[in-house]
Specification:
The structure is a homopentamer. Chain A is an alpha/beta fold and about 300 residues long. Chain A has a single domain, classed as Aldolase class I (TIM Barrel). Helices cover about 40% and strands about 15% of the residues of chain A. Chains in contact: A-B, A-C, B-C, B-D, B-E, C-E, D-E.
């Protein structure tokens, strides 16, 4: 990897939402593979890829992340105001694995042909399968550089060692996952907002114990460990509007470049989803846009 | 591998520090991947790749070793007096593995494009995964030769057999690791200064017992086993200035071509780090520069 | 071609002479192929590639440009303070051709292995063979980008059309040649300082007639046509010290990034050559270094 | 594989020692990788690759076998009377493996560039990893044929099945290993001189029981199983001059094409090593040269 | 092209004749293609490739140069003391061409498989086809480097411009041809001993007129223009023993590394040829071996 090409820079800019003051607002839509249609049962519109693209097109959502199968079948290239992040690896949640690894579901070249503006990759930091994961990511990054595609890494702490250090959302685990993504060459890093470790699982390295502060400070620390890469925090599983918007404010005030929210969008009635996106965009505008950075 | 090309020779020369009388002084900076941000918690400047490059640019440090992700995001090519060693494989420390192997995180060609002057590779001698490790290293070396890039091998004894022979830092283990790197074609070999074996773990081959002498003589033996490849010794984990400089003197008087020091640099206040580098450079100048050799 | 990589930027920096305040000072040494040994007859030292490398190593000359055959036989990689521009195409002056084209004499990959810091290419703008020339140059530029190598284009107006428009050194012809090199992706462009057209040959487009001013203004115009690419002007065939240094001052005051001088160096006694280089370096320092720019 | 090319035949001829009446005399020098520097502890000269090459150059040793890393660093191409066998696979002895496989440490093309005259490959017949081993060997042989390089196979019986049949040096095991190498296309096969099976380990197929005769006859049988491929027997671990020379006589009288001796050479004082080589060469001359054959 | 590999150095050494004090003595045998069997009409043995190989094997001739067709049909690899130069391009003398170019008749890889020790290439300096010739040579040289094969260039001035400058054997023409071969990366350069220009054809550049001295000084000048490449002079068409040996002495005293003689060998009775080779070898021994140099 070398200096970002003009292509990577130009395409990265398309992940930023003008409506949200330049924040990166991503709607991930790979749940059909990762969780199955169970995620769409309550609100049927959410099961229809065309509805998702249409929603993104009409709102402050800047980009939709999906596998090439969906992109190939639903994306026409005529949709306005929606960038595509081609998610290039993924897996189901059956069977559960103690050594998770998301195999490739496509290539960077296919993503370019399909009109994607960025590449998405899920990395399981701490997995017993990390040897193949890091190598696979390095290959994807090389192709991203060759074709001027920005790289968005979903960096997830996983595995028994992570659990034994206090769980996958602990500051220690999230901080490490963010840094690994930076060292591997991510342009944008998707993380969960860290929280205090779970003492029933285990304890992180001592130095992290005293850093376990309020979530806002922990979020800020993680953003700093990611350096000049842009951080987007996950909205996580479904919650109330108020609770979700509080997360958005916390994330942006901590220096995140934006948010990534799926279930909090499509697990609502369509109108409620649109309203929430509008409020999220307003939050982001008020937060003065995203933090400075290369993204 | 054949006779070193003029490209490999010219680039190897850039790892030598004029300020240190020609000794190779390397600042490794892959801890974010290998250990996580925990290594940077105490001194925040050390978490910033730009600060590391700037420090190397202003001091006797001749080269910084980092993964392509960091190089791509932070190295501009306008920094003066700092050569880059692109670290091409690595892993996290989670999970701990009884069969460690660092997968590739990039390619020699990407490193050349990024402006690297040398390639770094971590080899785990004694790991149950050595079959893949040696093959992977052979492929990297072939590309190094094709593009005139010198090869720096971090040669680490690891695994249960190494432990059962008295531990990873025993003279036996380090001596073997150095020789393996030479046979595989390393231009520069990074080793720990050997020490007496740990009798609680086990015992090395009898012939090594009588060679377990003072550390200076053990270091010299290891340097000789590496033949015409240049040896650089590790400064190891953080220690006092006096203790660190004693290691530097021991290493250089034993015939090492230089030192590699990371945590002893960035786990100090910036001013203390600069002072220590100046003293290390002075030690090296006084030691009459590095030993003769191909590097 | 996209944004210059950090590798291209770093290597381009090596063409700048610290001794000359950052100006690019190149000694071309492909005359043995282009003209034959006749250029070396008067001063025997100039026929010896080792003497040329040694001279560049000891003086403000930052880079030597030569074909891979000479580089392979004479460059050891241990020479200090001399960057190499691998000249990748060339031809003899026999037979004279009305459709000149310099065929490839090597590849970018070979140049990288040999330790070159930049690639040199001769383009004949206006030649009846330009179809193959532009295609060949595009291929070289693609490999330059892949391996982070800056591209120096010798851009020469040639052919009957050029003659009929007033000659190869007219403002019209040089201005066009410079712009073609910029459009093709040159990082550095080697041009002759333009002069008034030769009315016995023909006349340039009318708009150029009124631009034919003093040589300093014409040189400045050409530099501006090359935009952010760095221009280096040729010293041309042998002339007196005073006359040569006047050219240097004219070139640098017109905004050139530096000079390229071969016959004015090696067609003098060695001591006179060293003295002239020292004076040229002083001129460049006084000129406040080279103009700003990407090179 | 087809009829040996003229290149393979010419290069194979260089493994024959004129001083030894045309016998193949090989000094293997891969112990630094296979066993570590422990093999060199007693006689320091043996740890230096340059001393090994020099010794071979001055004596009846026709060829040295080493990995490309050593060849690249020590072989200059100016040494007289010494052919090189590039050992293309190898492993350490840590950890011990129940499924040994020596991964590739280089390629046939690299060996040709380095100036090697033959390729060496270690095959573990009976290893649980033989599936990959045979495939890897087939690939190496294909490249050998493409580039006219003779193939020397170190054919070692290994694994629990071999043990259960009476051990790795039994006539049954060695005979099988030799034949496998022939079927895979070896030009030269390195074997240990077989001995009676170890009844404490197990028993070979009944037909082999009655063939377990004196070692000379067993050696002859193995040579015949290798057909027109040339057999060289190993000198094994260190023994007295008399004992070693008896092995040489036994081997050559049994029809072997020559000997391969490492530790019996470099684990002696240099003068003793030279004397032993002279005596081994004399033995070979007296034995009337090696048996007839393609090698 | 980079620093010569150990393979290129080792193989180049095989072109030197021990019997001739280290001089390079080559018997070219491509006349069947270049001139047709007419060259063999007088002495029938010379038409038989096997006789040529046998002669070289028994005398001080170190190498035979031939096309792959002949090598494949006649060379067995069992011939002793004869190295092969695979001539990789050639042409007939019908039709005569004003733009001569010898197309490829094989590849470097085929030559390696056949057991060749060097590659031969004919370059027509000054030909109207030089564009394709230089490019073709550059490709051959790249493969030579990849496979460690030394490159012998037959560098022939040709074409109307060469004629108009005084003929193909003038000092000017030969001097230029030698230098072009050096710049293109030849290890060994085959030239004719230059003579005064033919004023009926035309005149060389004035600077060469005053250099037209006795043939010994002109030969020395040409050797110096070839720098560190080894020059071998041609024996030319058939002449008397005395006249031929005078050429040999002149060549070696002028600094040539050796001789190349075909028609002066095989256009004599076999016994006379053997006697002449013995005398040529003696001349070379007396001349103190070949000049110093990389070959």
């Amino acid at each position: 990897m070398s200096t970002p090409s003009s292509g990577a820079t130009a395409r990265l800019g398309r992940l930023r939402s003008a409506d949200a003051g330049g924040a990166i607002l991503v709607l991930p839509y790979d749940h059909g593979l990762e969780h199955g249609p169970v995620d769409f049962l309550e609100h049927e519109w959410g099961s229809r890829p065309a509805s998702i693209l249409d929603l993104a097109s009409r709102t402050g959502i800047a980009a939709v992340a999906a596998h090439l199968g969906l992109i190939g079948r639903y994306y026409r290239g005529t949709e306005r105001n929606v960038a595509l992040i081609a998610k290039l690896n993924g897996k189901t949640n059956i069977p559960e694995s103690s050594a998770p690894l998301s195999p490739l579901t496509g290539s960077v070249e296919e993503a370019v042909r399909a009109g994607a503006d960025a590449i998405g990759y899920t990395l399981y930091v701490g997995s017993a399968a990390q040897e193949r994961d890091l190598r696979q990511l390095a290959d994807v990054r090389r192709d991203c550089e060759r074709l001027g595609m920005p790289l968005v890494v979903w960096s997830y702490p996983r595995g028994s060692f992570v659990d034994a250090a206090g769980g996958r959302d602990s500051l220690y685990a999230v901080d490490y996952a963010g840094r690994v993504a930076l060292e591997m060459g991510a342009d944008v890093i998707k993380l969960n907002i860290p929280r205090r470790h779970d003492p029933e699982l285990g304890a992180p390295p001592p130095a992290y114990l005293e850093l376990e502060d309020d979530r806002s400070l922990m979020a800020r620390r993680v953003v700093e460990s990611c350096g000049e890469a842009a951080v987007i925090f996950s909205g996580g599983s479904q919650r109330s509007d108020e609770s979700f918007l509080a997360e958005v404010r916390l994330a942006l005030s901590a220096g995140a470049a934006g948010m990534i929210a799926g279930r909090n969008i499509f697990q609502r009635p369509l109108e409620a989803a649109e309203r929430l996106i509008a409020e999220m965009s307003a939050c982001a505008r008020e937060a003065g846009g995203a933090r400075e950075g290369p993204a």
